[in-house]
Structure formats: C-alpha cells, structure tokens
Design brief:
This protein is an alpha/beta fold. Helices cover about 35% and strands about 15% of the residues.
Length: about 500
C-alpha cells in the first residue's frame, strides 16, 4: 500500500474521500506508514515514529465517522515537527543531552489538530536548536531532500517539508523565525504559511527543559505546512484560536476575508532580489516565468515602488533583533565569546555579520531602539499595502544546495560564481519576519536542474487569508505541487 494513489492527495480531498466512504482512515494511515517504511530509510524525515497510536487514532476516527461525528480533519494522517511537544514522544530539538526528554502533554497546536480528528504519524526531524537551513543532528542524523537526497530539504522545518513532498501524510506543523517554514517549502516544492506574528498560539513549542507556557513572541511563529494552499487555510482555521492561558486569552480576532477572490484583481508588487543578497540566475529564471504567468492571467504587475521600506536598513534591524532573541538562551560561554567579538567591531561596520554579533549581546536599551526602528518599518508596510495587495519575492537566493556540515561560521553560499556569507541568506525571509507580516510560500516551478523553486507572497498585517487565497488562485491558473521523482 506504499503507493496507494492517495499519497499526494490534499487533506481537503482526503476529507471528501473519507466523508463519502471511499476510503477509511485506517487505510490512509496504513498506506502512509508503508510509504514511510519504504522511502524514509534514505530520506530520514520522520525521526520519531508513533505508528501504533496513529492506527488507534485512525480506528477511532473511522468509528466517529460511522456515528456521524468528527471534526474538520477527522481521519487525515499528518506529521508534526519534533520541536512541538507530543505527549510521550521525544522532543529534543536535536540536543543530545535532551535525548530522553518526553513531554507529558501535547502542545496546544498538537492538541487542536488531534481534537479536529487528525491522525499524528510521528515527529519530523530538525537541525540542532532549530538553527539552520539544513536538517541534521547527532541524535537522528541527516534528512535528505526528496528531489535530490544529496541536497538539503531546508530547515528548521526540513523534516516536515520532506515528509510532505514524499507523501507521508497531507499536513504538517512547523515554525519560523528565520524562514524555517518557508525555506523548506521552497527547497522541497511544497506550501507553507508564516502567519501574522502572534496569530497562532505557540504554547508547547518549547525547548526541552523549559515549561510549556504562553509566550509573547517577538519574531517567532508556528504555522501550517501542506501540499496545497487550500490545506493551509484548512489547518490555519483549526489553529487560529487564542491561548486561553495567555494574557488577553479570551480575545478572539476575526481574520479579514481575502481582499479579492479573482486572481486578476490582485495588485502585485514584485521584488526580484534583496539589495544585500542577490538572486541566483536559476531562481530568477523561475520567478520570471512565474511572474509572466501572472501577467498572462491578467494580474497587474509592478516591479518598483518608492513605498517599499528600505530593505538594507530593515535587514540590519532584523539581524540584531533575531540574534538578541536567539542569544537569550545561549550558554554563558557562548555569550561571553560573542561579547568579546562584538567589542572588536568597528563602529562603521554595518555588515549583516556585524549586526548579528551585536544582536547576540544587545542591551535592553538598544533592543528598544531597534524595536522603534521596526515600528517605522511596519508603518511603511501599512502605507505600501494601501496601494498593493501582495508583494511577491524569492524565498531564498538559490535552489536546494548540497549538504554542508562544516562549522556554520565558515560556510558560504555560492551564487553564480560568487560566495556570500551563509547566514546572510536570512535577509530574504527577514523581509516578512521583522514587521511580523503574513507570508505564504508556494511552488513557482522547477529550475533547469529539476529542483523546486518557490516564491513567498507577503500581505498586510492580519492579511493571512489574502496571501493564502492568492496562492490558491495561482495554483488554479498556473499549477501547484508536483511530486518528486522518488525511486520506484
């Protein structure tokens, strides 16, 4: 049953199949398990398997449907990023000293998908501390890209993206602070949605050893991953309720409807590359074809606007705030080393690497100054979205690159013959992360080398339904997910 004909169906399609009685949840779950057992020896996407409980949940789902009961996901198999707490399963974040960490309760997002009837097959692999564009650690090993096992599937939600592309369930949960939902979607040819900051509750998406409490996130979000934009909307609706334990937890925000329901009505600003990180010819060619397809469908395309916030300045603020948030949990020895490095920086060094070094040891006073700069950037985006509905730009500068497990400070990314600092790639996902805007990653096509290339669609604050709807309409007009050529 590893290739049942249903392995790449969307969750929306599977819900219909289940409702009509054409397939059972047990059949879907057994097929997903067989597929994992067939292909995951090479891909290593599902690092923690929970097959016995998944089959129990599938039987319960079938019984619920027989009684005329169930939720929006009843019987649909899915995976969950290993960084989410799943009761009884390992949640290590790749830290070897946390290899035995087993949460006693589900993360709030996991509890919600289970309450909606989903069948959780297991947890997907992550990089150490969720801190890479690749997915490997000393506990579980390396996750491969289904399109080319010698290449990265992305990170830190790389296991989830690889699982989706390979047909291991129809949905997954991921997270994002530096593009961790979007770059794996780009590299693996699937969909992901970075929601508006604070929209989805992250309780239980917690490093091992820390209590699972509500958190006021400054940059980080959790979000849905899928093989269709319609499924992103389906999973978003399951998750988008406030955390009743958080401050203001009784407050429920009614997300606005999409600005438009016809593709030709969208006003689109296209940004081809970041001023501090060029777009490779391979990615640019796919993006150009994608934008030409939009224009052919009657979409109004604009390629430049004075309303776009200063992306060089915004990237520098983002790097400082990102590393300040991440650095707050670094060991003392690492922080002291970073403090010494930052002290040696020239005052006029405004490289992104310098900003990351400063950010690791940022004072509260300097954090507040950076946050004020972020407020200005947010205002500029508000002004832009009075004239445009969405902004389309690349997710990453290149397609998936070969695995590189050398020390991060020494890594480079090659772009058309020139090498750039590996971590400077953060600039592209940071465009949406700094202001907290929604960004939907969708497949745009394949490079000449046959690798997936995605774009991200950024919308106004709380315009999550607008960016997802745009992605849905694009799929109808230009096509969407394409299965990778896994061996027969």
């Amino acid at each position: 049953m590893a290739d049942s004909g249903l392995e790449h169906r969307s969750a929306t399609e599977l819900v219909e199949e289940l409702a009509e009685g054409r397939v059972s949840s047990v059949e879907l779950t057994e097929a997903a398990i067989a597929r994992i057992e067939r292909y995951d020896g090479e891909l290593n996407a599902v690092c923690v398997r929970d097959f016995d409980r998944a089959l129990d949940a599938a039987r319960a789902a079938d019984a619920a449907r027989a009684r005329g009961e169930g939720g929006p996901l009843t019987g649909v198999p899915m995976t969950v990023k290993e960084s989410f707490h799943v009761a009884g399963l390992a949640s290590t974040w790749g830290f070897t000293d946390a290899a035995e960490h087993r949460p006693r309760a589900d993360a709030l997002a996991v509890a919600r998908v289970k309450a909606a009837g989903a069948v959780v097959l297991g947890a997907t692999n992550v990089p150490l501390g969720l801190g890479d564009f690749q997915t490997y650690n000393d506990i579980y090993g390396t996750t491969a890209n289904p399109w080319d096992p010698q290449r990265t599937p992305g990170g830190s939600s790389g296991g989830s993206a690889a699982a989706l592309a390979a047909g291991y369930g129809a949905l997954s949960l991921g997270s994002d602070i530096g593009g961790s939902l979007r770059n794996p979607a780009h590299y693996c040819g699937v969909y992901a949605h970075k929601p508006t900051l604070g929209l989805l509750p992250s309780r239980g998406h917690t490093p091992p050893g820390l209590p699972a409490m509500p958190a006021d996130q400054q940059l980080a979000v959790i979000g849905p991953m899928a093989r269709s934009a319609t499924d992103l909307a389906l999973l978003l609706d399951v998750l988008a309720e406030p955390d009743e334990l958080a401050l203001g937890g009784a407050y429920r925000l009614a997300l606005p409807a999409s600005r438009h329901d016809a593709l030709r009505d969208f006003r689109v600003l296209v940004v081809e590359e970041h001023p501090l990180m060029p777009t490779s010819a391979a990615v640019r060619a796919v993006v150009d074809r994608f934008v030409a397809g939009l224009a052919g469908a009657g979409v109004a395309i604009t390629r430049e606007s004075p309303l776009l916030p200063d992306q060089e300045a915004a990237a520098r603020v983002y790097m400082r705030m990102l590393m300040s948030e991440l650095g707050s949990s670094f060991p003392d020895a690492v922080v002291e080393k970073a403090r010494a490095a930052a002290a040696k920086l020239a005052d006029d060094d405004r490289s992104l690497a310098a900003e990351r070094a400063r950010g690791t040891v940022l004072s509260h006073r300097d954090w507040m100054a950076a946050d004020a700069e972020r407020g200005v950037v947010r205002q500029r985006w508000r002004e832009l979205f009075a004239e445009f509905d969405v902004v389309v730009l690349p997710v990453m500068p290149t397609p998936a690159f070969p695995h590189d497990h050398s020390p991060v400070p020494t890594r480079k990314v090659g772009i058309d013959g020139t090498e750039f600092d590996y971590l400077d790639q953060l600039a592209l996902p940071g465009v949406a992360t700094l202001p907290g805007l929604p960004s939907t990653a969708l497949p745009a096509g394949l490079s000449e080398d046959g690798l997936p290339v995605g774009v991200q669609v950024i919308g106004p604050m709380y315009g999550d339904r607008t960016t997802i709807r745009f992605a849905e309409l694009v799929a109808r007009e230009l096509g969407g997910f394409t299965p990778p050529p896994l061996p027969s």
